[in-house]
Amino acid sequence: MLEISGLTRRFGPQTVLNDVSLTIAPGQVACIVGPSGCGKSTLLRLVAGLDRPDLGTIAVNGTTLSSPGWALEPHKRQLNMVFQDYALWPHMSVEKIVGYGLDRLDTESRKTRVLALLDQLRISALADRLPSQISGGQQQRVAIARALATDPALLLLDEPLSNLDVQLRLEMRKEFSTLFRSVGKTVLYVTHDPLEAASFADVLVVMNKGEIEQVGTPEALFASPRSAWIATLAGYDTSIEGTLIAHSDERAITMQVGAQPLHIAHTGNSKLATAPSGTELTLMLASDRVDVTQGGGDPARNSLQGRVTHCLFEGRNWRLVVDVAGNAISAVTTHRASVGSHVNLSFSPDSALIFAK
Ligand SMILES: Nc1ncnc2c1ncn2[C@@H]1O[C@H](COP(=O)(O)OP(=O)(O)OP(=O)(O)O)[C@@H](O)[C@H]1O
């Protein structure tokens, strides 16, 4: 169990982590995602003991690792870290690297443990090779085997797949989902790729500007995203900016988009219910759930009028880019539309998300 409470880290005037609290249950795989610079690596480094917090505490399985004014040295923490560049010692064989932290074991036990790990990571055939004699994906496995060798309570991984090509990254996602479950470790995994994270995480931790924005299973998060950034990940790939005119009820509003009043029924957003008129809003839609019909029309609920600026063939469908008061809205249709033509865009309430800025 990893327990982080009120963690704050400042660098000069910049607060990089602000009052971050998080609990990860034993054996869970938690992936930290968020835009570049939001503080993901800083959080991982504080847990690893490579940096010290200004405020807050960190504990693993009830043992305090860090509290105000006090920090356990990194090598005394029951955890190991896998770095982005693997950090393998170039002059050692794979077998020596993996067994490096096992000097408390006798030679025979050490060999047995190392061979079992090499087997688990499917790199037994590479035991005698140097890091320079194996591929990036294999180096990655060696780094993980080394991190697991001392049986840590917590495994930390910082962007472990970012140096691999796309195909290998997809392969490794599958392997990670099996590996993490089979070793039963609590895992804290940082990545800038939310879909990588969602593919095997038990818990997604979304950070933004040094704070935790949302925590939950990937399915729960994508079903009810709390921010426009998370909504983008959940497939809401096109957006419209406007201003709140009025609430009709808690699930319907009128939003001014350029000269058009847009009446929107939506699935509810508690923050929106209290927003005053004049609030800037972002309406997010999924381009494959926007219906396109030809010609203008009455500005009915959940419909907008615009002009086609691009019509792009995508193999099976057409992607239209439609200008609505300066917003480039994307919509996927089964038929072509002429550039310059006027179209009506409509969407159902359950495919619209609205965020107040
Ligand atoms: N030692 C440091 N001194 C000053 N500022 C730092 C230091 N380390 C990190 N920062 C700043 O803290 C912020 C968060 O950095 P961090 O590396 O944690 O972000 P990140 O979310 O991991 O980003 P990325 O996805 O780009 O790796 C950044 O603005 C960064 O410039």
From TrEMBL:
<protein>
    <submittedName>
        <fullName>Iron(III) transport system ATP-binding protein/putative spermidine/putrescine transport system ATP-binding protein</fullName>
    </submittedName>
</protein>
<dbReference type="GO" id="GO:0043190">
    <property type="term" value="C:ATP-binding cassette (ABC) transporter complex"/>
</dbReference>
<dbReference type="InterPro" id="IPR027417">
    <property type="entry name" value="P-loop_NTPase"/>
</dbReference>
<dbReference type="InterPro" id="IPR050093">
    <property type="entry name" value="ABC_SmlMolc_Importer"/>
</dbReference>
<dbReference type="InterPro" id="IPR008995">
    <property type="entry name" value="Mo/tungstate-bd_C_term_dom"/>
</dbReference>
<keyword id="KW-0406">Ion transport</keyword>
<dbReference type="GO" id="GO:0015408">
    <property type="term" value="F:ABC-type ferric iron transporter activity"/>
</dbReference>
<dbReference type="GO" id="GO:0016887">
    <property type="term" value="F:ATP hydrolysis activity"/>
</dbReference>
<keyword id="KW-0410">Iron transport</keyword>
<keyword id="KW-0813">Transport</keyword>
<comment type="similarity">
    <text>Belongs to the ABC transporter superfamily.</text>
</comment>
<keyword id="KW-0472">Membrane</keyword>
<dbReference type="InterPro" id="IPR003439">
    <property type="entry name" value="ABC_transporter-like_ATP-bd"/>
</dbReference>
<dbReference type="Pfam" id="PF00005">
    <property type="entry name" value="ABC_tran"/>
</dbReference>
<keyword id="KW-0547">Nucleotide-binding</keyword>
<dbReference type="GO" id="GO:0015697">
    <property type="term" value="P:quaternary ammonium group transport"/>
</dbReference>
<dbReference type="GO" id="GO:0005524">
    <property type="term" value="F:ATP binding"/>
</dbReference>
<dbReference type="InterPro" id="IPR013611">
    <property type="entry name" value="Transp-assoc_OB_typ2"/>
</dbReference>
<dbReference type="InterPro" id="IPR003593">
    <property type="entry name" value="AAA+_ATPase"/>
</dbReference>
<dbReference type="InterPro" id="IPR017871">
    <property type="entry name" value="ABC_transporter-like_CS"/>
</dbReference>
<dbReference type="InterPro" id="IPR015853">
    <property type="entry name" value="ABC_transpr_FbpC"/>
</dbReference>
<keyword id="KW-1003">Cell membrane</keyword>
<keyword id="KW-0067">ATP-binding</keyword>
<dbReference type="Pfam" id="PF08402">
    <property type="entry name" value="TOBE_2"/>
</dbReference>
<keyword id="KW-0408">Iron</keyword>
<feature type="domain" description="ABC transporter">
    <location>
        <begin position="2"/>
        <end position="234"/>
    </location>
</feature>
